[in-house]
Structure formats: structure tokens, C-alpha cells
Amino acid sequence: MLSRTASELFWMARNLERAENTARMLDVTHTMSLMPSIDADHSELIAPLTITGTHEPFLAKYHQVSMANLLQYFCFDEENMSSVFSCLRSARDNAHSVRGKIPAEVWESINSAWIEIKDLRRAGISSSHAQSFFDWIKERSHLFRGSTIGTMMRNDVLWFIRLGTFIERADNTARILNVKYQVIKDDEDSIREFYRWNALLRSVGAYEAHQMLYKTLSRESVAELLILRDEVPRSLRASLEEVESILSRIEGNAGNHPRRLTTILNANLRYGSISEVFEEGVNAYLTRFLNDINDIGQSIHDAYLETL
């Protein structure tokens, strides 16, 4: 496969996964903003900006951190490359470049989402309609993944799509847990802390899984679930298991370096314990993980995506 084709497929999937992750992040922020007196210090509202590293450009344009401004910035602002609008535009451009490599149903799932979001952008978004927008983008993402798994041949085209999905997912879960853990761990109000952990689990679709696997909700149980449990699709370990499996399916020796990096990182997750995570410090552990996943992403780029 040509490096350019692999790159378009990889980033098509990353952009679609990022659009869904942005919606999930906004969903939890919006939910918490509706709870009286839960965010007097604006820590919940600032969290999305910290997670995406967009605090300065946001303030330069909007001047004030408010839920209305966050919705506009992360849903429709074309200057914000992490906005849902920008992600879908990029994904559509990626898909158009490899139109002959993907089935019609996969193309239609992306192209129709792009057409619909342009209409939604013209209509604007309000707090009262935010939840329906979040649900819409999650449904479009599910449709893309379903059409991909249900219609594509099991070859390198599919593997590069899946590789992009899980690299982006691992990065996002680590970022949101890293930032949210810092916000929540110092909360002295036990009721507020409970609702914050609850909202975090819902943002990554892991609320029901936590109920099945743990008797009580605590910082330890949430951290273990999202870092080390492979039963949860958005956990770090589940994402790395997928990346390791996918890399082994791509033929040739070009990927030896990313395979080695992924195997080492995944082994640390597979055989690690939550006590070791807390001994190092959750934030220090996640910061190191983000550096490692960035190195894996760069090594994938160097091995497969860079045009020689």
C-alpha cells in the first residue's frame, strides 16, 4: 500500500474518533455545568481546554470561559482543529482521497455526517439542544465503525483504519483521565466527588461496566477500570491490545519499531497493578503513558505513513 493511502486511512479514522471523543468530553462538561454550585472555581469548564491544549487560542477569541462559548468552540469553530466540525471536515477530505479503497457504505456514513453538520452549524447550538447533538455525533461514529467492520475486507485498508481509531482512543482516554483526576481527587465534598466520577465514567461509556465489576465507586476503581481492565473498550489496556494485534497483521518488517514499542507498553499494562500506578502517582503515570503513545504514533508515521 502507498504511504499516502495508508496515511489518509489512518487519519480518517483518527479524525472520526476525535470527533466522538470531543462530543463525549463536552457531554460530561455540560452535564456537570447544570449541577448547582458544582463548579464555582470553573475547574470543570476549563477541563476541556486543558485536555485539548487550547486554553490560549480559546481565550484569544472568546475572552470568557462559559458553557455557551465552549459549545460553539468545540462543536462548530472551524479554527479549532479539535472541534467536531473540523474533525468531520478533515475525515471527509481523507475519505474522499481514498474513495476507491473503501466501500460505499463507509463513504456514505462519513459524507452524510459532513452534510448534516453543515446544516447543524448554520442552525447553531444552545444548551437545551446540546445533548441531542452529542448523541447525534456518537451515533454517526457508531455508524462509521459498524459499516467498517461489517463491509470491509480484512486487509491492510481495514488495519490502518483500525490503527488510527485505537491510537486516538488511547490518547484521549489518558488525557481526559489525567485532567479529570487532578480536578476530582482534591474535592472535599463526597457527594460532588461521586457525581464527578460518575460523569467521567459515562463520558467514556464505562458506567455500566463499572457497576458490573466493582461494588463501590472510588478513585482507585475508576483508575483501575480505565487504565488496566481490558474488558472496557476505551481503557488504555484494551486500546493497546488492539494496536498490538493490528500491527502484527500488517505484513513486512517496516513496522518492527512500532511493534516493539507497543509490545513493551502493553506488557506494562497487562502485568501492572493499580497499586503500582498509585505508587508512581496517577498523573505521573498517565503523563508517561501519553509520551509513550506519542512515540508509538510517531514510529507508525515513520514506518508506514511518511512519503519517501
Written overview of the protein:
- The protein is mostly helical and 308 residues long.
- The protein folds into 2 domains: 1-152, no CATH class; 156-308, no CATH class.
- It has helices at residues 3-33, 43-52, 55-62, 67-75, 84-97, 104-123, 130-151, 156-184, 190-203, 207-213, 219-227, 236-249, 256-270, 274-280, 282-305.
- Helix 1 runs antiparallel to helix 4 and helix 8 packs antiparallel against helix 12 (236-249).
- The relative contact order is 0.12.
- The mean pLDDT is 92.
Compact summary:
By secondary structure, this protein is mainly α.
Percent in helix: over 70%
Give me the secondary-structure category: mainly alpha
What overall geometry do the principal axes of the alpha carbons give? globular
Number of strands: 0
Radius of gyration: 19 Å
Strand content: under 5%
Topology overview:
Blueprint: H1 3-33, H2 43-52, H3 55-62, H4 67-75, H5 84-97, H6 104-123, H7 130-151, H8 156-184, H9 190-203, H10 207-213, H11 219-227, H12 236-249, H13 256-270, H14 274-280, H15 282-305
Helix pairs in contact: 1-2, 1-4, 1-5, 1-7, 1-8, 1-9, 2-8, 5-6, 6-7, 8-9, 8-11, 8-12, 8-15, 12-13, 13-15
